[in-house]
Write a structure and sequence with these properties.
7 strands; alpha+beta; single chain; coiled coil; 2 domains; elongated; 4-stranded mixed sheet
Length: 469
């Protein structure tokens, strides 16, 4: 075999310039080809190389036949083989890159499809949520009050104005009666008994202190407004049993599941009462209530106006005192938040249960008995404040939170009558020896109220000018 190869004219040593070619040295495929050529066996071209060659050059078979007819030098063949191997490697690399790009494209397409599905799902959710939001907004807006509610500042201002109005009215309309100690009754009278029921124990003890009539009447009127209007669940009677029914419904709502919070309960209550006030019948109820209260108060106060026109006096009481109180109560009772009136802790105590005003009494407006009407606020050095009785309650506000009331805040201070004495004289006390005649008109009224009809006139002072016929 070696001899045949040696004699074969087509087989020979690989030229030195081919072996020493930089391309052949740097290419592993070129070295393999060179080794085969040295061994005398022509290199085989793989099927992939053949296919690649056909793709790259469709006339390869024709060229091969021509090459067979016209053989080329060995150096050219080897160089072409190296080039083919490089092209094959390049094609393989490009094929791998193409495959990787196709895989990435497929993955991207899958992600895009998933994103489209997710986007569609999110659009549907947005549509549902937008619908729910619109319904919630409609519900929330339906809970909001259509009627303007009273503010804290407005409530404080109106209550302060009411207190001043009562004080001014008493001073202008009844001062003459206090000075002359004249009343229209000389025997036990239901009006006296009803009026004295408005005066608590401290006020009755003050009957023995001179110059306390005016303040006691002011306090009695404020107590009347407190009991009959301002401190009620609702200031105007509607129908018998209505408020009890409303309160029972509110308690039942508080026990429902899911549980209703305090804001919901208070809002429902106020909306219900607001709807009731819009009924045509309510105008009649309120008008009747105003007339009834005006007649009651004017009838009691007419004791101090023996010669007044009772109908005109009643209209004056209604327009000056009753109507402002009804309007204030209407606004406060229809508020979601709570407005309330509160007297001092001494309001119903006896003298032995009370002590001189301490530092905490600075939260009240203390009206001095002497000098009369001067407002002072303890503590003041070297003087003692002695409590006599409450003139008007304080206005307290509690805002409604989610499920509770906030801490109470005083919007207007309460007013109390005090006696101011020097510290060396000690607290103000009642006279030890009782005078023959009471120093106050209300003291005479109290004596008349407890007297027998046969001797009631003996308790009237000489200055009395009005008598019953």
């Amino acid at each position: 075999m070696s001899g045949a190869n040696e004699n074969d004219p087509n087989v020979g040593d690989v030229p030195d310039d081919t072996m020493n070619s930089p391309k052949a040295e740097n290419t592993e495929a070129g070295l393999a080809v060179a080794r085969k050529w040295q061994k005398g066996a022509p290199p085989r071209i793989s099927s992939a190389t053949t296919v690649t060659r056909k793709i790259q050059n469709p006339n390869a078979e024709a060229l091969g036949s021509s090459k067979a007819a016209n053989p080329t030098p060995a150096c050219g063949r080897k160089s072409r083989q190296v080039t083919y191997l490089k092209d094959e490697a390049r094609v393989s690399a490009l094929t791998a890159e193409l495959k990787s790009a196709l895989e990435k494209a497929c993955a991207t397409a899958e992600k895009l499809e998933e994103s489209k599905k997710e986007c569609k799902l999110l659009r549907n959710q947005v549509t549902v949520l937008q619908k729910d939001l619109n319904e919630t907004q409609d519900f929330v807006f339906s809970l909001q009050r259509r009627e303007k509610t009273i503010t804290e500042a407005d409530a404080a201002a109106e209550f302060h104005s009411l207190c001043l109005t009562v004080e001014d009215w008493v001073q202008t309309q009844l001062t003459k009666a206090f000075d002359s100690k004249s009343i229209k009754a000389t025997r036990p009278d239901p009006r006296i008994r009803k009026f004295l029921s408005l005066i608590p124990q401290p006020g009755k003890e003050a009957f023995e202190y001179p110059d306390t009539d005016e303040y006691n009447v002011i306090a009695a009127i404020m107590k009347f407004l407190y009991l009959e209007i301002l401190a009620k669940d609702f200031y105007c009677p509607i129908e018998r049993g209505f408020m009890n029914f409303l309160n029972s419904i509110e308690r039942s709502m508080g026990n429902l599941e899911p549980r209703r919070d305090l804001v919901t309960l208070r809002t429902w209550r106020c909306e219900t009462l607001t709807a009731v006030t819009q009924r045509p019948e309510f105008v009649q109820f309120r008008h009747k209530q105003g007339k009834t209260l005006s007649n009651d108060l004017a009838n009691m106060l007419s004791l101090f106006q023996p010669r007044s026109d009772i109908s005109g006096f009643t209209r004056l009481v209604q327009s000056t005192i009753i109507e402002p109180a009804l309007q204030l109560a209407h606004k406060m009772h229809l508020s979601v938040h709570e407005f309330s009136l509160r007297y001092t802790s001494y309001h119903s105590t006896k003298s032995e249960e009370r002590h001189p005003l301490r530092r905490e009494w600075s939260q009240f407006d203390c009206v001095s008995l002497s000098p009369p009407g001067k407002v002072q606020r303890p503590p003041i050095a070297d003087v003692i404040f002695t409590y006599l009785f409450d003139l008007s309650p304080e206005l307290v506000f509690r805002a409604v939170k989610a499920d509770s009331f906030a801490e109470p805040r005083v919007l207007k201070r309460g007013r109390v009558l005090v006696a101011v004495t020097p510290e060396e004289h000690g607290p103000y006390t009642r006279p030890l020896s009782r005078p023959k005649d009471s120093p106050t008109l209300l003291g005479f009224m109290a004596e008349i109220n407890h007297a027998k009809p046969s001797d009631s006139r003996s308790f009237m002072p000489a200055e009395v000018t009005g008598t019953e016929d």
